[in-house]
Backbone:
């Protein structure tokens, strides 16, 4: 039997959830997140039931230690009706997955379709993040990254590694992944307009 998955996955950067307009609030009692924490969020559109969300996560990802995941409320932008230019901002309940376990989960995920009827069909947003994770690791394995410096103040720079798409094949794969992504993969307010 096919399981049609309503569960969505979204990457939440610290720059978003620390903004007042994100409406971010931890539901888990006595817990706090460091302000510079980025994370992935599991959520279901138009759902305000933590119990239903927990049941979906257990069904789709039985190996995730659900009791260790923090719960939160956060504002997400959802396309209004069929329009892709009008958005409704709605507070959603979500479960926070730290970057490291989420990356491991996404990298190991089998998302290629097969005729097995018992196979779980992941939502588009989960597939997109799994494909992006696999592509990034493949590019890292091929050594396709360079150091980059960004000026902050006079004679001060932030350094980071950046992936580069050397071949047309890699470039086409990346564009194809983004072109096939649905709104829930990137549904933060920051995706619509810059904050501040």
Residues:
């Amino acid at each position: 039997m096919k399981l049609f998955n309503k569960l969505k996955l979204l990457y939440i950067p610290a720059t978003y959830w620390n903004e007042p307009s994100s409406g971010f609030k931890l539901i888990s009692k006595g817990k706090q997140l460091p302000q510079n924490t980025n994370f992935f969020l599991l959520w279901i559109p138009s759902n305000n039931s933590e119990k239903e969300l927990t049941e979906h996560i257990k069904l789709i990802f039985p190996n995730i230690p659900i009791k260790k995941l923090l719960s939160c409320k956060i504002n997400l932008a959802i396309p209004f009706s069929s329009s892709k230019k009008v958005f409704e901002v709605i507070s959603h309940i979500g479960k926070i997955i730290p970057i490291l376990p989420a990356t491991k989960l996404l990298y190991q995920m089998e998302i290629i379709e097969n005729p097995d009827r018992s196979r779980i069909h992941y939502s588009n947003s989960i597939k997109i993040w799994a494909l992006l994770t696999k592509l990034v690791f493949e590019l890292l394995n091929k050594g396709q990254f360079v150091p980059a410096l960004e000026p902050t103040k006079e004679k001060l720079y932030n350094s980071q590694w950046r992936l580069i798409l050397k071949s047309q094949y890699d470039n086409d794969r990346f564009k194809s992944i983004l072109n096939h992504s649905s709104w829930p993969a990137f549904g933060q307010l920051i995706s619509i307009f810059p904050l501040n």
